Amino acid sequence: MQIHNPVLPGFHPDPSIIRVDDTYYIANSTFEWWPGVRIHESKDLAHWNYVGCALTRTSQLDMRGNPSSGGIWAPDLSYADGRFWLIYTDVKVVGGAFKDGTNYLVTTDDIRGEWSEPIRVNGVGFDASLFHDDDGRKYLVQQTWDFRGGHHRFNGITLTEFDTETMRLKPETMRTIWEGTDVKVVEGPHIYKLNGWYYLFCAEGGTSFEHQESVARSRTLDALSFEASPRNPFITNFDTPRTYLQKQGHGALVSTPGGEWYYASLTGRPWRHDDESFNGCRGWCTLGRETSIQKVEWDADGWPYVVGGHGGTRVVPAPADAIETPAPANHSLRDDFTAAELGPDWNTLRVPFTPAMGSTGDGALTLYGQGSLCNLFDLSLVARRWQAFDFDAEVRVDFDPANYMQMAGLTNYYCDGSWSWAYVTWDEKRGRRVVGAAQNDFGDYTDLGDAAVPVPDDAEGVWLRTRVRTSTYTYEVSFDHETWTALPGAYDAAKLSDDYVLSRTGAFFTGAFVGLACVDLAGYRTPAKFTGFSYEEL
After folding, report:
1. How far, in Å, CA of 293 to CA of 263, rounded?
2. Per the count of CB atoms within 10 A, which of 62, 270, 359, 431 is most buried?
3. How far is Cα of residue 449 from the mean position of the Cα atoms in its chain?
4. 277 pLDDT higher than 60
5. In whole angstroms, what is the distance from residue 20 CA to residue 255 CA?
6. Count of CB atoms within 10 A of residue 447's CB?
7. Would you give the distance in Å from CA 86 to the centre of its chain?
8. Distance between CA 390 and CA 392 in Å, rounded?
9. Stretch (H or E) spanning 499
10. Residue 276: per-residue pLDDT
C-alpha cells in the first residue's frame, strides 16, 4: 500500500495528527469557514474519511465580523487521560501590528460526539498546542506575538504550565524555551518526549514558498534550553522549486503501533501559466494549502529526518501494520437537498446555517437574500472546497427578483476581496430577468452589463454551470438543462489562489470554494430556491 500526496486535497492546512490505538486522526485549520476544525480519520494513513467538526455551536466560536483568513488558526488535537483535547485560536485581526487572537480549550470523550464549552486559555500568541508530559503535567506551548515597534513580531516559543484541577494556566511559569533559527518567523510548535529528550517541532519562514519546519531538542523544559538540529530544515521545498509538492512545513509527528514514524504537513500544489517564465513565481495554489504525509526516520544521534530528503516525496510507503481503510476515490458530489441539515461538504462563512439564512430539505436549498459577497456579517452563502484542479459544478436556481439589487446564483469564491459569480437578477431597462456574471478583484468590480443573457418568459428554471480547468474557468447558462450557452468571458483562476491574494493582502490562508449565494441589497430578503447541485471532478 502507498500514500499518495496530498492525502487531504483542497484547503486542509496546518494538520495536527495523533494516533489512538490503531486509528489516526487529523485536525485542520478552518479559518473563517463554519463549522470550525475539520477532523478526519484513517487506519492506514493513506485513505481518510471525514469524522466531523469540533466547533459546531456559536458558544464555542463567534466569528461574526472576523476578517478573511481570521478565525481558526492551527488547532492542536491531542489525546490523554481517556479523552480528546483541542486547543484552537480565534484570530480577530489579520493585518498590521496586532493579531488579537484568543486561545481556547475544548474536550470530548467521543470524537464523534459534541465537544465541551470552551475554556479561555490566553491571548499571548497563536498556534498553541498542549503537551502532556509523562509525569502527568501539562503545558501550553505557543508562538508569542510581539506588536511593539523595533521588535520582531514572532517573539519565540513560550511554554506555560496548565493546571488540570483549575483548568487554568499558571502564568507565573511562562518562559521562552526557543527563539528559533536565523530563518525567523517561528510558529506552530509541538513537543514530543522520546528517549529522555524533549523534541520541539516548529514552522519557520512564513507560509509561502519559503515555508519550512525546524526541529530542536532539550533534556529539560527550562528557558532557552533547546538546541537546533544540525539537520535543519527538517522539511521544506524552498530549495526544491520543481517538485510536485511545495510549501511543506507546519505539521505534526505521529508513530505507528509498530514503531514507524510519519509527519503530516501542510503543502501546496502550484500551477503556472504556459506563458509564465520561471522567475521566482512558482505559480498559483488555487486549492489552497492541503495535507501531505511523509515517512520519518532517526539518525544515529537521535535526530529525525524525512525519508527521501527534506523536499519530501509525492508517493510514500504506508506503514507495515496499516489496516486498509475504505474511502471515496474522489470528492465528486450530488446533493438533492433532501436532508433537513446541510451535508458535511458544505460550509458557511463565520456563522452557522440557520433559518435566518435559509433552509434545506424536501429537495431544495432555500437562501434568503442578505448582503453582498463582500459582507463580513450578513451573507447567505453556502459553499464547498475546490478539491480538484478540473471539475464541473452546476445547479438549478428559481428566483424572482424585482430589481437589480436582488441576485442569486453560483459563485467561485476565495474571500470577500476575490470572487466571481453567475447570477439571476432583474434588468429594469429590458423589463425582465437576466443572467449576469461579475468579478470582484479587491474593489475592481466588473460585470456583463448589457451582455447579460435574457431569461425567456416561459423558462421554468435557470441552470447555471461553471467549468473549472486549472488555470481558467467559465460560466454557462441553460433554460432547459440540455442546451448550454457560455456567458461572455473566461476568468483567471489564479485570482482565486493563495498566492494572488497574498500579493493583494495579508489574508491568504484558505483556498477556492464553489457555492450558492443569494443577495438582496434592497433589504427584502427575497428567497432563491436551489435544486440538483452537482460537483464532478474530472
Report:
1. 6
2. 270
3. 34
4. no
5. 10
6. 15
7. 17
8. 7
9. helix 498-504
10. 54
Specify the CATH number for 13-241; select among 2.115.10.20, 2.40.110.10, 3.40.50.450, 2.60.40.3140. Answer: 2.115.10.20
Nearest to 538 by CA among 332, 397, 372, 376: 332
Query: C-alpha distances in angstroms, 304 versus 46, 228, 247, 301, 448?
Result: 21, 12, 19, 9, 56
Tell me the CB-side half-sphere exposure of residue 484, using CA atoms within 13 A: 15
117 CB contacts (<8 Å, ≥6 apart)? Answer: 59, 60, 106
Give start-end residues of each CATH 2.115.10.20 domain in the chain. 13-241
Instruction: Identify the helix (H) or strand (E) that includes residue 131.
Output: strand 129-132
Could you give the residue range(s) of every CATH 2.60.120.200 domain in the chain? Answer: 333-537
Catalytic residues: 14, 187
Per the CB < 8 A criterion, the answer to whether 130 and 140 are in contact is yes
Element (H, E) at 264: strand 261-267
Cα distance between residue 39 and residue 444, in whole Å = 37
DSSP state letter for 493: G
Instruction: Name the amino acid, one letter, at 313.
Output: T
Reported as a single tens digit per residue, the pLDDT across 425-456 is: 999 999 999 999 999 999 999 999 999 999 99
Residue 29: CB atoms within 10 A of its CB come to 28
Phi and psi at 503, nearest 5°, equal -70, -15
**Residue pLDDT, tens place only, 207-235:** 899 999 999 999 999 999 999 999 999 99
- Which 8-state DSSP code applies to residue 320? T
Rounded to whole angstroms, how far apart are CA atoms 203 and 184? 9
Helix (H), strand (E) counts: the chain: 1, 42
Rounded CA separation 397/409 (Å)? 7
